[in-house]
UniProtKB/TrEMBL annotation, chain A:
This is U6 snRNA-associated Sm-like protein LSm1. Residues 1-63 form the Sm domain. Component of the cytoplasmic LSM1-LSM7 complex which is involved in mRNA degradation. Its main location: cytoplasm.
From TrEMBL, chain B:
It is found in: Nucleus. PROSITE patterns: SM (PS52002). Pfam families: LSM. It comes from Phanerochaete carnosa (strain HHB-10118-sp). This is Sm domain-containing protein. InterPro entries: Lsm7, Lsm7/SmG-like, LSM_dom_sf, Sm, Sm_dom_euk/arc. GO terms for biological process: mRNA splicing, via spliceosome; nuclear-transcribed mRNA catabolic process.
From TrEMBL, chain C:
Residues 2-75 form the Sm domain. This is LSM complex subunit LSM4. LSm subunits form a heteromer with a doughnut shape. Residues 82-91 have a biased composition (Basic and acidic residues). It comes from Phanerochaete carnosa (strain HHB-10118-sp). Belongs to the snRNP Sm proteins family. One of its GO terms (biological process) is mRNA splicing, via spliceosome. It is found in: Nucleus. Residues 93-120 have a biased composition (Gly residues). One of its GO terms (molecular function) is RNA binding.
Length: 116, 94, 130
């Protein structure tokens, strides 16, 4: 299964159980990061995820997974690019929010700013 | 097996007259001496000092005797044994 | 095996708790309740930016502020074994005819749990095979 969290993290793992709050138990979890057409994985193990932080939960078609045209690289290589992507996006979103706030009279989004 | 825990999982009695650190939803943070509490985690703290996350340097302010609302607390720990340390996760997955 | 019963079974085990604000806490679970409120001992706290670290003897964390918990991989096997033992014990004490009732004794919703467990195990097998 693929789980996307509110903080943007993407976790791949085997869904072991869930409850009425959509709290999830994810086994053999790996976290994936992406940058352009490459990705990297980091083993994370057993997760208990609090349901309210989950944006998306989807089954992965393992047959199609083989055809994904992305190249895997080392986590250590990709991580700096990934961090920069996040920082760039944050700066862009802040700039956008400021323009909307000052020129268009929108209110500022409180706190987390993840749009969820 | 999975019986609901009626009793609190935290025994606040052991912290009475001890200095504790409390964080709230929204990020505010105080320390104070625990004087009283109830099962909803409402607290009475004395000699309260708020840690302000001011720029460029953090600062504090004195608040005296304070009632803290239980539902707004997010984190509670004794000040005793609390210290800032160097990265303990070197060469280890944090 | 509900997520919260896994958490219950993780008592005295090391774990990593990440809060919604990004702060993380590494420590041993002392206690937890059905709101996911938890108490930890021998805790290392890490700031959201990952640049500051603190040591705490113990701490209490409100469940509603938690993003996720990372627990030892072996925990799932331990819990599965415990459940099997409990099921066996339930069967032998109630007699052979009470197989389904014995299963119900394991958890409050044992009947549904068993149904849930089935397709998941199947999915796992497929995942490993491919």
């Amino acid at each position: 299964m693929l789980v996307v969290l509110r903080d943007g993290r993407k976790l791949h793992g085997v869904l072991r159980s869930y409850d009425q709050f959509a709290n999830l138990v994810l086994e053999d979890t790996v976290e994936r990061i992406y940058h352009q057409d490459v990705y990297a994985e980091m083993k994370r193990g057993l997760y208990l995820i609090r349901g309210e932080n989950v944006v998306l939960l989807g089954e992965i078609d393992l047959d199609q997974e083989d055809d994904v045209p992305l190249k895997q690289v080392d986590w250590e290589t990709l991580e700096p690019y990934h961090q920069k992507d996040i920082a760039d996006k944050k700066a862009r979103d802040e700039l956008k929010a400021n323009v909307l706030f000052e020129k268009r009279g929108f209110c500022k989004e409180g706190g987390e700013g993840d749009g969820y | 097996m999975d019986k609901p825990k009626r009793e609190a999982i935290l025994d606040l009695a052991k912290y009475v007259n001890e200095r504790i650190r409390v964080k709230f939803t929204g990020g505010r943070e105080v320390t104070g001496v625990l004087k009283g509490f109830d099962q909803l985690l409402n607290l009475v703290l004395d000699d309260v000092e708020e840690q302000l996350h001011t720029e460029p340097l953090p600062s504090t302010r004195q608040l005296g005797l304070v009632v803290l609302r239980g539902p707004t607390l997010t984190l509670l720990s004794p000040v005793d044994g609390f210290e800032e340390i160097a990265n303990p996760f070197v060469a280890q997955d944090a | 095996m509900l997520p919260l019963s896994l958490l219950n079974a993780a008592q005295n085990k090391p774990m990593l708790v990440e809060l919604k604000n990004g702060e993380t806490f590494n420590g041993h679970l002392v206690n937890c309740d059905n709101f996911m409120n938890i108490t930890l001992r021998e805790v290392y706290q890490t700031s959201a930016e990952g640049d500051k670290f603190w040591k705490l003897k113990e701490c209490y964390i409100r469940g509603s502020t938690i993003k996720y918990l990372r627990v030892p991989d072996q925990l799932l096997d331990v819990v599965k074994e415990e459940q099997n033992r409990a099921r066996e014990a339930g069967r032998s004490s109630r007699g052979g005819s009470g197989g389904s009732r014995g299963a119900r004794g394991v958890s409050q919703r044992g009947g549904r749990g068993a149904v849930r467990g089935g397709p998941m195990r199947g999915a796992r097998g497929r995942g490993r095979g491919a």
